[in-house]
Structure formats: structure tokens, C-alpha cells
């Protein structure tokens, strides 16, 4: 069974147990999905981001929770480019080791000999339950840092009872007076990377936005797959023709395809332009960063609407657990709620275009 077929087959059980199944986790690691954009030194593929986005879309088409887990562990592993070499050797030396976490600087650090003592609690800890190392944004005396802790230092709190992305295990987690060596804390903007490469030039906080948008697009593509299959098989109650023969469904399907294809193309165009700057070793202009984030937010919104339309077109058949349409609906809405693709990004884009000087530090 190929990877995508395995993911589809295991998705209902993963949904039920609120965690990816062991066969899927093992297969993801065997395929190196978690190191797709990591340095080759650590078993990474050093994949270009436009190609990585397409891979995330296809994984999410098979199952959103799996795509999300693959996305967030790959984004987390990109920290291998930025950390000092000795720290990266420690964290990423095992090519099968997983890393995940949360960038929000909710940890409070007190200086100690050789580093810090850190206490804090974070949310949205997707895949932390499966990880060997955990990223936790930490506020230090020299500013915010992305800090990496061994899994043994972390306490996981079973809080992820969500409407969608149920199998991502995005629980809250905490640290209590954990020791953080200085070498395992870095800010990936403006510093000297441990390993040079296009990834270190690409705007760091756009990684996650691209990843979230790619998950949303994959879920919407699955929703279209599902409604197409249902339409050719279902004749609704009190109707004499199949859904596929009804003009209203035909129009909705055509519009859904046009909207999803347009959003996908916009994201690919903006991402490819930004990636070209990174490959050439030049900083991405603010106008292009804003356009990329606009494309991410637009893709997430369009994907959610397309999924809603597909769910509605399926009628009563969509509401049952046996239908992938209801899972697509829930997953798309939860993924698109992430702050990196919120509608506030649209304001920033327009403010920049209109010369109003928005804060671009997190773009």
C-alpha cells in the first residue's frame, strides 16, 4: 500500500483515537516527510518550498490531520538551518527524530549558569506527543527566542478536544523550571545561521503560513473529490435524477473548481517569486512578503468556502461519520482559524500598498 492510500485507510481510526496511528507515523518517518526542507547533513531533502507546498497539499488531500502533522514537523525541523552547529548536531543527529512545538514566546526565562531556567505553558502543540524534541517560544533577557527542549522536560496536558484536525494531538504543554542551554536558543531573523542555504534567506514566519494554506488547499481538493464521487452515485430523496444531472450541482462544482484552482495558482505564483529571491540569496521585498501572506490567507479562505459548498451539495449524506465530507468541513474550518492566515493579514497588505507603514516584523 502506498503512503497516501495508507493515510486514507487509517484516517477514521486516527480521528476516533485523536492521534495518528502507528502505521502512519512510521510510514511518514520512513519517507522522511518530517525532514523534507531540513539540511542534507541531517537526512533532509532540502526541498524547494514550492514543491514542498504541493507535497503538503497531497498529504492533506489524503487526510488533513496527517498533512498538518507532516507540515508542522517539517517547519519545526527547518530550525536546523539556524541553530549553532553543535546544537543542531545534538537535536537533529538522529534522522528519525521528530521535533514540533509552538513559537509563541510564552516561556519566561531566568538566567542561569550556561543558559536559562524556563517555565511556561503553550497551546497548539501539534505532534508534540510524538516528538523527541520540543520547540517552545521563550522570552529571554536578550529578547524572544525559539528554544528547543528534550521531550522529557515537557509535560503534555490532554486539552485537544477540537472540532477538526482531531488527530493532530495539538495539546497544551508546559515546562517547569527546565534548564535551557544557550546553544539551544536562537532567533531565526537577522542572525548568522549555522548552515547557509535559501531557507535561511526566506522570510521565516511565512513558512507556517504557507504550510497552513497548503493544508487547507489539500482538504478542499479532497472535498471536491468526494462530492464528484457522490454526485454520480446519489439520487436524492424525492428526486428523479442523480446529483450529477442537476444544473445547480453542476454550476456549484464548476465554480468550486475555478475558485480552488485560482487560489492554488495564486499561492504557487507568490511562493515561487519569494523562493526565487531566497535561491538568489537576496532578501524578499516587503511588497512580495505581503503578497505571499495575502495569497496564504486568500487560499485558506477560499478552501474553506469550497469545502462548505461541497458539504452542502452532498445533502444529508454529508453529515454521517462515514462521509469524508463532514471531516473535510471540520478540518478546513479549524485549519483556517490559525492566526497566520487570519483576515488581519489582508489589512497589513492593504496598509503597505497604501503607504500606511504597517508592522512587517512577523512577515
TrEMBL record:
InterPro entries from the xrefs?
A: Acyl-CoA_DH_C, Acyl-CoA_Oxase/DH_mid-dom_sf, AcylCo_DH-like_C, AcylCoA_DH/ox_N_sf, AcylCoA_DH/oxidase_NM_dom_sf
Which keywords accompany this UniProt record?
Oxidoreductase
* The keyword Oxidoreductase belongs to this UniProt entry's keyword annotation: yes
Any one Gene Ontology molecular-function term assigned to this protein's record:
flavin adenine dinucleotide binding
Q: What is this protein called?
A: Acyl-CoA dehydrogenase
What is the source species? Lentzea jiangxiensis
Limits of the Acyl-CoA dehydrogenase C-terminal domain: 211-342
Q: Which domain of life is it from?
A: Bacteria
Keyword Oxidoreductase recorded: yes
Amino acid at each position: 500500500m502506498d503512503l497516501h492510500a495508507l493515510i486514507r485507510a487509517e484516517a477514521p481510526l486516527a480521528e476516533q483515537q485523536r492521534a495518528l496511528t502507528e502505521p502512519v507515523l512510521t510510514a511518514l518517518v520512513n519517507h522522511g516527510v518530517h525532514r523534507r526542507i531540513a539540511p542534507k547533513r541531517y537526512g533532509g531533502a532540502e526541498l524547494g518550498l514550492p514543491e514542498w507546498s504541493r507535497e503538503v497539499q497531497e498529504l492533506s488531500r489524503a487526510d488533513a490531520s496527517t498533512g498538518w502533522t507532516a507540515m508542522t514537523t517539517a517547519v519545526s525541523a527547518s530550525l536546523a538551518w539556524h541553530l549553532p552547529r553543535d546544537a543542531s548536531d545534538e537535536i537533529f543527529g538522529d534522522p528519525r527524530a521528530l521535533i514540533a512545538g509552538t513559537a509563541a514566546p510564552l516561556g519566561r526565562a531566568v538566567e542561569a549558569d550556561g543558559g536559562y531556567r524556563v517555565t511556561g505553558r503553550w497551546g497548539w502543540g501539534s505532534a508534540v506527543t510524538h516528538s523527541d524534541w520540543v520547540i517552545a517560544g521563550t522570552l529571554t533577557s536578550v529578547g524572544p527566542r525559539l528554544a528547543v527542549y528534550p521531550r522529557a522536560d515537557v509535560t503534555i496536558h490532554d486539552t485537544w478536544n477540537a472540532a477538526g484536525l482531531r488527530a493532530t494531538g495539538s495539546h497544551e504543554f508546559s515546562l517547569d523550571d527546565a534548564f535551557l542551554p544557550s546553544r539551544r536558543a536562537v532567533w531565526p531573523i537577522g542572525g548568522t545561521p549555522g548552515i547557509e542555504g535559501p531557507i535561511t534567506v526566506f522570510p521565516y514566519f511565512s513558512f507556517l503560513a504557507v504550510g497552513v494554506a497548503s493544508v487547507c488547499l489539500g482538504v478542499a481538493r479532497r472535498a471536491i473529490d468526494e462530492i464528484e464521487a457522490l454526485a454520480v452515485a446519489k439520487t436524492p430523496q424525492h428526486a428523479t435524477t442523480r446529483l450529477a444531472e442537476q444544473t445547480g450541482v453542476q454550476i456549484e462544482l464548476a465554480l468550486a473548481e475555478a475558485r480552488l484552482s485560482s487560489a492554488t495558482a495564486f499561492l504557487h505564483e507568490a511562493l515561487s517569486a519569494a523562493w526565487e529571491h531566497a535561491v538568489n540569496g537576496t532578501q524578499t521585498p516587503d511588497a512580495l512578503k505581503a503578497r505571499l501572506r495575502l495569497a496564504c490567507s486568500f487560499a485558506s479562505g477560499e478552501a474553506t468556502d469550497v469545502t462548505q459548498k461541497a458539504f452542502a451539495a452532498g445533502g444529508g449524506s454529508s453529515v454521517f461519520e462515514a462521509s469524508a465530507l463532514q471531516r473535510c468541513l471540520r478540518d478546513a474550518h479549524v485549519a483556517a482559524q490559525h492566526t497566520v492566515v487570519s483576515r488581519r493579514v489582508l489589512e497589513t497588505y492593504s496598509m503597505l500598498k497604501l503607504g500606511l507603514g504597517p508592522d512587517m516584523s512577523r512577515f
